[in-house]
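Private note to self, pasted from the team thread so I don't lose it. Backbone tokens:
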């Protein structure tokens, strides 16, 4: 059972999340032979002020 955790700054629309989930699960099925219905994907959308690169906050 593949589990994908996708962490990103900001928000995605429902349509974007649907397309990403479709493409990730199709890729795992095609390349790794993992059925789409066994793939789990979690979107972790982080506010800009809660994410930094080095000493610089994104927000």
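Design output:
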């Amino acid at each position: 059972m593949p589990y994908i955790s996708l962490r990103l700054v900001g928000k995605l629309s429902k349509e974007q999340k649907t397309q990403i989930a479709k493409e990730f699960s199709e890729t795992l099925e095609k390349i790794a032979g993992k059925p789409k219905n066994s793939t789990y994907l979690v979107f972790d959308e982080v506010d800009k002020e809660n994410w930094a690169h080095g000493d610089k906050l994104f927000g």
